[in-house]
Specification:
mainly alpha; 6 helices; 0% strand
Length: 191
């Protein structure tokens, strides 16, 4: 069963502007380090790096593999199982994706303080920009969408849009890995 939202349904969302404001506030605050806000390191380098790496691993692994699992189930199995898979994705999104999307950049900003912040580590600036774009394009909208849970009974709702956003996020994730491993910058050198 497919469902196309009509103009009346979209306008019938009485909290739409509140959630748009929440989205914009999160994205604005997340952009501040790109313009010089520094996050002080509150723990020694190595433990902070370990937390950052494990959180990033959990974020990427969960997001990538659970989304593939959910897509397969929601597309190929009966509607009831698709509803269950969407409910399970909601739990994972709110308990893993959301928190890791906060822990990864915060600990990353703390780790990069050892190099003098983002302005002295252009590869980290590029990686932070790419992660910020991932959050703006995919993570924050998904967390808000799953938190609101307006389409819990429609397992395929938002799958095409989410898939497109996920592909963009995947490309940005590969760029983050290249920038962080090779310590190369493509964007920051022009800023």
């Amino acid at each position: 069963m497919t469902h196309t939202a009509t103009a009346n349904e979209v306008e019938h969302d009485p909290h739409k502007y509140f959630w748009v404001a929440v989205y914009l506030l999160i994205i604005f605050v997340g952009a501040l380090p790109l313009f010089g806000l520094r996050v002080p390191q509150i723990a020694p380098y190595l433990p902070t790096l370990i937390v950052h790496e494990f959180a990033a691993f959990a974020f990427i692994g969960h997001t990538f593999f659970s989304n593939i699992w959910s897509l397969r189930i929601r597309r190929n199995l009966p509607r009831e199982i698709g509803i269950w898979a969407r409910a399970h994705m909601r739990i994972l999104c709110l308990s893993v994706t959301g928190p890791m999307a906060v822990i990864v950049p915060l600990t990353g900003l703390m780790v990069v303080e050892n190099w003098g912040g983002l302005e002295n580590a252009p590869w980290a600036w590029d990686a932070y920009l790419a992660f910020w774009l991932i959050c703006a394009i995919s993570v924050v909208p998904d967390v808000i969408r799953y938190a609101r849970n307006r389409h819990a009974d429609e397992p395929m709702h938002g799958m095409v849009n989410g898939g497109i956003r996920a592909m963009i996020a995947t490309v940005l994730t590969f760029y983050i890995l290249i920038a962080m491993i090779a310590k190369v910058s493509v964007i920051a050198q022009y800023m």
